[in-house]
Every structure is written in structure tokens, then in C-alpha cells.
Amino acid sequence: GENVEQHPSTLSVQEGDSAVIKCTYSDSASNYFPWYKQELGKRPQLIIDIRSNVGEKKDQRIAVTLNKTAKHFSLHITETQPEDSAVYFCAASKWNTGFQKLVFGTGTRLLVSP
Amino acid sequence: DTEVTQTPKHLVMGMTNKKSLKCEQHMGHRAMYWYKQKAKKPPELMFVYSYEKLSINESVPSRFSPECPNSSLLNLHLHALQPEDSALYLCASSSGPRVDQSYEQYFGPGTRLTVT
Fold it and tell me: Contact A7/A22 with Cβ under 8 angstroms?
């Protein structure tokens, strides 16, 4: 089955710096790669996602890149703000008939200091 | 309405109790999911329902029993749980996989379960 590795496990940056989180996946059939942000005691919330037919996607300060050949994808956050502090999970999935099975990475705790 | 709701928010139960967790969505999604999340860990898939049929059971112990009464509702029946079952239980739903549809899984706020 699919296996997703995520690094680093913790990341501390100064406000205004950039943050990069990297994930690798094992199943070449995976075709959907979402990133979730989870604040303490809250639900995971999708911040950006990318499908396997796209190499890069950007939404304001957040971008995701996908390298299908190497089977890795990365989250880039620019101009970080204290409110970006949270745990970030990458995930990989492929669609079965009518549903998807998301496999999550182990998470990265991002701390943005003012 | 892009919301998944879950009740109760918190639940404390003894090992001999029977309780149920409830999840509801009105987005017309036909896939619904139960996840278990322990502290400082990622969500771990337990069950998937697709078109009200159980499609995945990730070798979950029988003390957890899922039910999908209709396309909007998902229940998780709990019986004879162990203290190690204490966790945040998350429900999610999704549509797709049509090209013109979002692939997003929408998560509910979760039920914080404590087994004493």
C-alpha cells in the first residue's frame, strides 16, 4: 500500500521567512496530493491540493510542487506569519470507485516567531 | 453549505458502556469516512462508505461498528472500548472524482473520546 514520508517533523522560522515542507510517496498510481493545516484542538483544513496532471500550483503565499518521476511533493509558504503556526500534514491518494483513500504523512509542526 | 457536523463534541465512557458517534453532511457527497487521530499523530483511516455501502474496513476491532443509514448520515457505534481507544474521532466526506469536481475531503470538528 501507499506510504508517505514527511520532513521535517518540526520547523521554526522567523516571521517573514519562507518555510518548506517535503513529502515523498511510494505508490506511483497516486494522483491526488492535498495539504492540510491543523491547529491545536481543531479539524484538519485543506490549504492547497494538486492533481497528478499538474506540476505546480499557487494560492497567494502558498504553493505546492509535484515531481511525479521522483515521487515527491513540497509545500512552500512565503512571508510566514504567526498565524501560520500549526501542524501541517501532506497526504497522497488515488481514487477508487467513488471514494479516495488518503494516506497522511507524519506531520510537520511549524512555529513562526514574531 | 460546506460543513460536516459531528456530535457529541466530547464523550467520556466506561469500558462497559455502549455509545454512538454521529456525523452529518448536506453537501450531496456520496463518500463518507471515519478517522481516528491520537495526539501528535496524523489521522488514521478506519472506515469508508461509498454510496452507503461499506467499502473499506482497515482491520478495525469489532468493538467499533460503523453504520450509514442514508447518504447524509454516518454513525460509529462503540461497545466495550479500551483506554487505548481514547482519541479524536474525525468524520469526513467527499465528492468526485469527476474532473470538474473538487477532490477535497471535508473534515468534521471531531469527537474527543475518553475511555475510563
Answer: yes
**CB of A101 less than 8 A from some CB of B:** yes
Q: What is the pLDDT of residues A57-87, one digit of tens each?
A: 999 999 999 999 999 999 999 999 999 999 9
Q: Measured at the alpha carbon of residue B64, what is the angle toward residues A4 and B27, in degrees to the nearest 5?
A: 70
Nearest to B66 by CA among B24, B105, B34, B110: B34
Q: Is B80 exposed, middle or buried (0-12, 13-18, 19+ CB in 10 A)?
A: middle
Q: B107, A45: Cβ pair inside 8 Å? A: yes
Note whether B109 contacts A106, CB cutoff 8 Å: no
In sequence order, the β-bridge partners of residue A101 are none
**Each residue's pLDDT tens digit, B5-39:** 999 999 999 998 999 999 999 998 989 999 999 99
How far, CA to CA in Å, does A11 sit from each of A7, A22, A33, A101, B92? 9, 11, 21, 28, 28
